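On clarity, I found the account of how folds are encoded harder to follow than it need be. For illustration, here is how one protein appears when written out as sequence plus structure tokens:

:::
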Amino acid sequence: MAAEQKSAVIPPKQAKTDYPLIDSDPHIRRVFGYARPSDYAVAGGLGAASPLAFWVMERVSPSHVGRGGFAPVMRLATAVGIIGGLHILYQRSCNRFYGFTENTREVEMDMREMVDKVKKGEPLYGTSQVSPYLQGVAAQNSRYAQLFSHIIPWPNLVNHDRHGVDTAKYYQQAERELEAERLSKLGSP
């Protein structure tokens, strides 16, 4: 059919949280970029637990699998640890985007990033090669998907403009900053 499909914009549900919502569907780059050093430390520690546990079990109660039997198991345990560590890192960072945990640092980072984009005239959430219809589909499929990521990992890989926040605050802050810069230039000799 030649008729263009139109996307029905379904407004995102607003969860009641103790902290402000930054983004209900953060792009995977933002999730890893906003992660705190403590997230990386926890992820590394929990990721190392899997191979360490297999090594301890082998020392406490040897399996006697013979030569070359332990190495494949350790590779598997390491892969499980890496995947689990990345999942924990992603989950902790997303929880701050959603406002489920303390997110003062991320709110400030988000405001700075978005205001800088406004000042440069760039789109807030990046440009996309995908049609607006597919952007809507992607947004509906990955919004709050982290809450179910232990079953189906579904990170947001699509740039779109449906993130559940009022973007006017970025434009207002950019206006205030530009006005302050203009006034400081007028006042300086």
Q: What stands out?
A: The mean pLDDT is 87.
